[in-house]
Amino acid sequence: MATNIVLKRVTNLFLVLVLATVTYLAKAAELNETQLSLYFQDISAFGNPNATVIPVAGIAGKAWTFTQFGTVFVTDDYITETSDPKSPEVGRAQGMYVTAGLDGLNSHVMISIVFTNKEYNGSTIQIQGVSKQFEAVREVAVVAGTGKFRFARGYATFETYFLDIPAQYSVIRCNVTVQHY
Ligand SMILES: *[C@@H]1O[C@H](CO)[C@@H](O)[C@H](O)[C@H]1NC(C)=O
Ligand SMILES: *[C@@H]1O[C@H](CO)[C@@H](O)[C@H](O)[C@H]1NC(C)=O
Ligand SMILES: *[C@@H]1O[C@H](CO)[C@@H](O)[C@H](O)[C@H]1NC(C)=O
Ligand SMILES: *[C@@H]1O[C@H](CO)[C@@H](O)[C@H](O)[C@H]1NC(C)=O
User: Fold this and answer.
1) For 16, which DSSP code?
2) CB of 160 closer than 6 A to ligand 2?
3) CATH of domain 32-180
4) Beta-strand pair 124-132/89-99
5) Distance from the alpha carbon of residue 91 to the mean position of ligand 4, in angstroms
């Protein structure tokens, strides 16, 4: 008797697994892939009232710079459709960067792309991961999303597209590839 019950339970569990897999496959077939090229208008100049990246915490007695371990930056970059800062607005890149490599090379990035354009207004894409700051192309993970990007997963690359060192102004191209429902 006892063996019968166990067998029945196992069979039921098997059925549940089969059903779950079928549902999963059906959903997976509906996955949609979106690719975007976005341009972040980034001003990191200290003392500039228009700065969009600002160090807010760091190790006491050390300079709070991008290469100093432990420095935390908060950012709110304006995002545009092309590299031209006057081109149509897409949204904002809001979040934090933490210099997380003891050697100052790697930064940990936690950014929400908050869309305000017509197509994706109100939706967000969540980016999180390590950025090898000194590499020409920095790849980070897209871990989630909301609105049109619910269940988003994928990756994003960051490239410095334009750099004005005296003004501490740069345009960063962010290419996003995501799969979502
Ligand atoms: C995929 O996205 C495009 C563009 O947003 C949309 O037109 C299309 O209906 C979507 N496909 C599915 C299967 O959701
Ligand atoms: C980003 O996308 C643009 C096209 O919009 C392409 O020319 C460029 O090579 C891409 N960059 C990377 C690192 O894939
Ligand atoms: C800040 O932005 C305003 C408005 O775009 C501009 O008039 C001003 O010159 C900028 N200030 C600096 C220091 O760049
Ligand atoms: C985006 O949504 C907000 C709030 O619903 C609205 O005020 C705004 O006009 C919308 N923007 C666009 C470009 O549709």
Assistant:
1) H
2) no
3) 2.40.480.10
4) unpaired
5) 11
